[in-house]
Amino acid sequence: MSWVYSGLRRPVEAVSAEAVGRGTTPGRPVSAPDPLRTPLNMCPTDALRSENDRVVVDYPRCINCLRCVREPPSLPVEVGYEPARLLTEPLAAAFRHSVHVRVVDAGDCGACLNEIRQLTGPVYSLHRFGVYVTPTPRDADVLVVVGPVTRAMEGALMATYDALPDPKRVLAVGACALSGGIFRGSFAVRDGLVPSLGIPVDAMVAGCPPPPLAILEALLVLTGQVAAGGRS
Amino acid sequence: MAEIPSLQSLRGRVQALAGVPVSVAAPPEHLLPLTQVLMRQGWWFIGLAPDQEEPGAPTRLRYLWQHDEAPWLCLDVTADGDVPSITGDVYAADWPEREAEDLFGVRFSGHPVLGNFVLHDEVWAENLEPMREPVRPLTPEPRMDVERPSIVTAPGRFAFPIGPVFSGVEESVELTIETVGEEVVYPHVRLFYKYRGIERMLTGRTGADAVLLAERVNGPSAFAHATALSQALESLCLREVPARAYALRLLFAELERVRSHIRSLSHTVESTGLSLPANWLIAAEESLLQLSGEVAGHRYLFGLNTVGGLTLDVPDEALASMVKRVGRVLDQVDALYERLTFDNSFLDRLEEVGSIAPGRARLVGMVGPVARASAVDRDVRRHQPYGAYRRTVPRPVTAEEGDGYARFRVFHEEARAAFSLMEEAVAHLPAGPVRVAMEPRGGTAVGAVEAPGGTLAYYVRTGGDGTIRRCHIMPPNFANWHAVTDALRGSAFQDVPIILATFGFAVADADR
Domain of A34: which CATH number? Predict the structure, then answer.
């Protein structure tokens, strides 16, 4: 049997964009009351802070190690993901069903990148929303950046950004691109897409790594296909 | 001259010494003859851990060697002046020496190429030595006039640059291929675009915090990294990790191996243009990611391992059903594999491309499944058993040809062997806790595991309070990228992506 024919015989297995579950989106700690005021310095990336007897989680810094869930302050865990935040405007309506994406690995550990690769696979099937990964920045409308922006990748990242034609949008994916994540403060990284780089971030999605559904949602938010959950 | 302890005297001390290496101090002038003795006795060079014990003190070079019947051996040379390069005898030490020169400023006499390795000259000034204390100001000094290496002089020669940004969803690495037309005459690999300075960040951390950082050296093999570092630190404490923690570590490590090998298969298939089976393999990988998320709370098993055991216990029934689901995923992969091995157009792209002969694989220092595909039968789980592998032993998987197809077969066969191991382990799960409190102690230890990519070792020196004073990571991909020049030389241009894919490389792992 030819590959094409056997491909047609296999049923469509793509999950819906709302298929939140323990496997697709294992979860994140959620803020909870803590009248005992447990010391919060156990968080490796200082993502916890205390506000009016509550522990509050700062998701752009959270690296999903779940230490605050499995050890005191024993925060509850919630299945799902932190919704993407839109910082500027989505792309115009003309892009709604045809968006090309250029991915740049600026030093990620491989997990964020693998989640993006999964997006192009049959389970998440990015293409059904009219989003395609393109080989050349000249054809791209959205620049997706993963990793804490290592000093060695800075030049290549800038060159890629400059090569994108206007109008363009930048999506920062994962704790590293947002804040440096666990690599924050290393001499060899820029702590993510910091303003001094001159690459304006239009949308961001938190997580270490953000599950494919979260990245998918972020791309749909950027193209105006869905409204931003966490617009700020 | 310093004496290498006889193998006779070392035999039987493997378990007693666990990860604490037998140290042999030697002056630099004895380094070469001692290295030759070790080579003759059948020791394997695993890595070079430079370590500066006090600020301002000279760097001490710790050459780590492994033998099937002995504990780790550490050849300890103080770099107070020039040190002879051992690359002439041990070609595998080529890149580790360049790394030590770049990060610690150790001068190796007789090494053909030094500098511009970890710290790219386009970004950093010369002689920065960021790992040495007291450290110089670490501010980048970008410049554009850096010359690229060039060794081909044939008429019509030109250099074809690829990367660091690739066309698909790929990791950042650079290849410069020198060519006169269709044939790859000489490829230059440039790593460390993703250098995040992890070893420097590990200094001063407590064990539990260091494990979180180690996981993120390479996300797709996070569990192996966390296990290797935990093991190194645990071997310094006087308590044994509970048997149940060992059993669970085996299960999750093998789950990670199955997932990683399926991923390597999908990359290979994708590179040959067969997008349908490639996508089915991506879907199989996703099933295992979802399984990890359901069982361990993280799709890449982050946050699961820690010094002293695991942060989470999983009920026996959940583990049993996990293993069953892995079996079902592998059945789908098997069906696909069967069809691929009868697909001539697919086999034509893999057979006799990127071949590495057995002797060459050993010389270059290859490890793991890609080395086993070149008949180098080395596996930490079998030759230096740790944790639950002392009782549950994997079956050897090797191939002779060393070409792309041999690597493809080994990846598949090893995923199968990993599953057998999981079945065996889940049938005899010990009861009890999965974690013990570990009293931190000072000392020097090596933790080694068989990561999906091959031998992964962590050299750790801790202070009396248990915080890390120096940690050196010896990842399998760093050893295996060294073989790329051999694999690509003489091949046709269109085979380059396929050859690279058959290695199942991770760049983040090598770059650290």
Answer: 3.30.70
